[in-house]
Amino acid sequence: MTDPLQPCVHCGFCLPACPTYLATGDESDSPRGRIVLMRALERHELGPEDAALVQHLDACLGCRGCEPVCPSGVAYGRGLEAARERLFQARGLPPLPRAVLGVFRRESLWRPLFTAARAFRATGMAKAMCGSGRLGFGMGMLAASGASLPGEQVPRSSRDGAGTGATVALFRGCVMDTLFRHVHDATRRTLEYNGYRVLEVEGQTCCGALHEHGGDRGAAVELARRNVAALAGSADYVVTNSAGCGALLKDYGHLLGDEEAAALAAKVRDVSELLAEAGPRPGAPLELDVAYDAPCHLQHAQRVHEAPLAVLRAIPGLRLSLLPGFDRCCGSAGIYSVLNPGMARAVLAAKIETIAAAEPRPSVVATGNPGCLMQIGAGLLAAGLDIPVAHPVELLDRSYRG
Ligand code: SF4
Ligand code: SF4
Question: What's the pTM?
């Protein structure tokens, strides 16, 4: 394979697009600086025991905001993937990420854990305990995962759309299948209303993206193989409502290196892509000021820009805005916000300030990824801003139910 970092000419165009460089001003926290470090690691000029190298690579969000602005076409994400795999093979993982990724590897662990968290969230205590300290922010993330839209009602059953439509297997995932079941429900209803036939497929598990980001390719491959076995041949499309899962599902061909995985990957769509392809059908008016924030793994990794905006524009009366930096990482980045809370919060601060300063103040922030929903939601709660964060399909579903 050709070196994905080789085309770098060190021009520095990527620096202003990098949230960690903007937060620290340190060249080693920039894409250009990290490329120098990654190439030194590859050439054995620096070893995996080099503390500064590890620190600066660990501090990378993997948001890939540096890719679209690069005039030389450097495949930064592929380079980072290889560097993290090298570090993992040489050193394994420190105890905290090892424990967290171990949970996501076993459904017998993550399902009861997140199901209990959902029950705790329902008591209202998570919202009552939210704040800006480490525990308070964690509680804010949990509370934000169940945020209700203004004037939320009890859902009615879905109305079937016109036409026979294609079949769609819903990718359930782990966090989405426990803390964000309401988004799965909205996904199913909005797709059905737009003429798709949504199928439930057994035997799926976590997509493996968190393991792949951490360099644990073996665990990512194991999880991906289970998903391919469960989903291959199941439907015309595999749909996901999590940008992070979608980015890896679409890359299963590369990860597993076989034709069955590549065929499945070619069928994967973000829910906004399928809805935009179908129209989507307009719903009832929603008089809301909605600010859209683009998840990095939808915008930069999947290169899906317009589809979520088409979903929101199908809602009459909804006033849509793109705030400055809407395409910049919020600091969530999978389990990054748990492992690097200081940098994650520094990156988030800019986004919260932009939302707070917006005129008019948004009544809802919309974004299509669980980590972003929780991170931005917790940031708004910690700042005392009563602005719910919702998935775009939740808003479309609400419009259809109106
Ligand atoms: S990654 Fe691209 S934009 Fe950044 S320094 Fe290298 S060539 Fe320039
Ligand atoms: S992936 Fe994101 S955090 Fe990492 S170097 Fe690129 S822009 Fe910066």
Answer: 0.94
